[in-house]
């Protein structure tokens, strides 16, 4: 009897040892967020007590303010993926020109897999959230985006807005054209507008041809009085500046001034105290404006299309007197 127990104990130890060796040889698993089942994706958004199921999802690489990340988009209806890919290629990684007016949730994650901000829409309500109200995580494994994100705002039932998304989806393969290298300059001031004296080459009686973009000029766009670090980049048709004012104040200024200047909105503005995205059109020209928190103030990036970049000479009142 004692020999039988000894043999049984020895067999048990051998099996346990073999199991230990197998576990020791297994590679360490990649971290996968909790509550995510393999190859499943579920999403929903709730506004005013009404919940919309979001069965369609796509994850894709994206650029926001020249920062690379991954966006995860859930939608109530099927997402036109080819249209999305075309927009990403056309805008060199940005998805600003891709808009869907269907119940949806889009969360942007940074390279570290942390949620940066979210834009949602349902029942004629837009929700833009960044910071503490947005929670989640994302990892990329074997070409798949795996993660989850949640958001809840509003204390009263009628004001409560929330979404919950969990995903395991193949990452969309998109070949983004590389940006053209910027020409070398001796100083940063080379990209700022300068007053130049130009000699007219037109003959007597000949009418001057209008510049590209008609009379709409990049240098006529409204600027806050407290603007700093102003920089125009003709190569990429971008205008960037900073302001010590808040995102809300700068956004209100831009909305008012552009409206007064005849620029129209496509009703796709996304605004919150930390981030704002505006789209404006006028006479065939387009503006996509990003306003985001920068320290105690704001940073504004304006991407333009169809505007003239012909520098305008300064008024006589601004010219320095001849010595």
Q: Summed up, what is this model?
A:
The protein is an alpha+beta fold. The protein is built from three helices and 17 strands.
How would you describe this structure to a colleague?
With 323 residues, the chain is α+β, with helices and mostly antiparallel strands. It has two domains: 42-170, no CATH class; 212-315, TATA-Binding Protein, CATH 3.30.310. The protein is 15% helix and 37% strand. It has three helices and 17 strands. It has helices at 2-25, 81-90, 247-260; strands at 42-47, 50-53, 56-64, 67-75, 104-109, 115-122, 125-130, 134-141, 144-153, 161-170, 228-233, 238-243, 264-265, 270-271, 275-282, 285-294, 297-305. Strands 11, 12, 13, 14, 15, 16 and 17 form a seven-stranded antiparallel β-sheet that branches. The protein has a five-stranded antiparallel β-sheet with strand order 2-1-10-9-8, with no helix packed on it. A five-stranded antiparallel β-sheet has the order 3-4-5-6-7, with no helix packed on it. A hairpin with a 4-residue loop joins strand 11 and strand 12 (238-243). It is globular, with a radius of gyration of 27 Å.
Question: What is the topological layout?
Answer:
Layout: H1 2-25, E1 42-47, E2 50-53, E3 56-64, E4 67-75, H2 81-90, E5 104-109, E6 115-122, E7 125-130, E8 134-141, E9 144-153, E10 161-170, E11 228-233, E12 238-243, H3 247-260, E13 264-265, E14 270-271, E15 275-282, E16 285-294, E17 297-305
Antiparallel strand pairs: 1-2, 1-10, 3-4, 4-5, 5-6, 6-7, 8-9, 9-10, 11-12, 12-17, 13-15, 14-15, 15-16, 16-17
